[in-house]
Write a structure and sequence with these properties.
single chain, about 280 residues, alpha+beta, Alpha-Beta Plaits, GMP Synthetase, Chain A, domain 3, three-stranded antiparallel sheet, three-stranded mixed sheet, 6 strands, FliF_N_dom, lipoprotein
């Protein structure tokens, strides 16, 4: 038979434990990140007033960025506005790694064009204020019957942070692309710049939410201690109830002393002899 005290303890402690578990819940924002990417994303989120931390993955080679469940939606918006996570680009060594198959000239040209675009995009992404950069290169196939080869073209897409003016850097950007490609005229490079969306303002937070953000750890600790105290008090009360107690006004039965030996009874013959001796003495 189940003790009702345990049911009462469970009903009282369950809400406290649920609060503790809900406060400790974490959600993963992005995974398979290198340490540099994870550090940058954590710094951006913390500067925006959001709780964030990084955790190593099981493989020990990558990291994941986590945040609280209540800050998940805003964390995604802040990272998207900042261009995170950063795009990864292929290098020439990765595109032209040694393989067992022989590529055709068309495939080699396509791979070279892709590798060149990746290298240029990576270079432009490192400019201060650039959120995202893409370089699209078009290298026409050479016609041996043509007098002059068709010149190549390039289009550069740049998304920059709001408030950052990169219009003075258009000439330098075109020079980087022209000098990286053979036979690319300066006038055949187009640079298009677009401002990124500003980071959305944080929703007004109530005093309770601010207190929770500042003292959440202390609240969790107090809730856990309170749950343990409730369980300990109920267990102690249950143990005390199990001890037998006498009702009010009643007396415990007195201990009986050892029975005293019964008086000896004289035999009838001895009594007759005593009476005869008494009569003789009177006469």
């Amino acid at each position: 038979m189940t003790n009702p005290v345990y049911h009462r303890a469970a009903r009282l402690a369950a809400p406290l434990l649920l609060v503790v578990l809900a406060a400790c819940s974490q959600q993963e924002l992005y995974g398979q990140l290198n340490e540099r990417q994870a550090n940058e994303m954590v710094a951006v989120l913390r500067n925006a007033g959001l709780q964030a931390d990084k955790a190593p993955a099981r493989d020990g080679k990558s990291y994941a960025v986590n945040t609280s469940a209540s800050d998940f939606s805003r964390a995604v918006e802040v990272l998207h506005a900042g261009g995170f996570p950063r795009d990864s680009f292929d290098t020439l060594g990765q595109v032209f790694k040694k393989e067992g198959f022989v590529s055709s000239p068309t495939e080699e040209r396509a791979r070279f064009t892709h590798a060149l675009s990746q290298e240029l995009s990576n270079t432009l992404s490192n400019i201060d204020g650039v959120v995202q950069a893409r370089v699209h290169v078009s290298v026409p196939e050479r016609n041996p019957l043509a007098d002059k080869p068709t010149p190549a073209t390039a289009s550069v897409f740049i998304k920059h942070r709001p408030g950052v003016d990169l219009s003075q850097q258009v000439g330098n950007i075109k020079g980087l692309v022209v000098n990286a490609m053979e036979g690319l005229p300066y006038d055949n490079v187009t640079v298009a710049m677009f401002p990124a969306e500003p980071i959305p303002p944080a929703a007004p937070r109530s005093a309770l939410a601010v207190a929770w953000a500042n003292y959440g750890v202390a609240i969790i600790a107090v809730a856990g201690v309170g749950a343990l105290a409730v369980l300990a008090a109920l267990l102690l009360g249950w143990r005390q109830r199990r001890k037998p107690t006498a009702p009010a006004g009643s007396q415990l039965p007195a201990t009986q002393s050892p029975a005293s030996p019964a008086p000896r009874r004289s035999s009838p013959l001895r009594a007759v002899g005593a009476d005869a001796a008494r009569v003789a003495a009177d006469s």
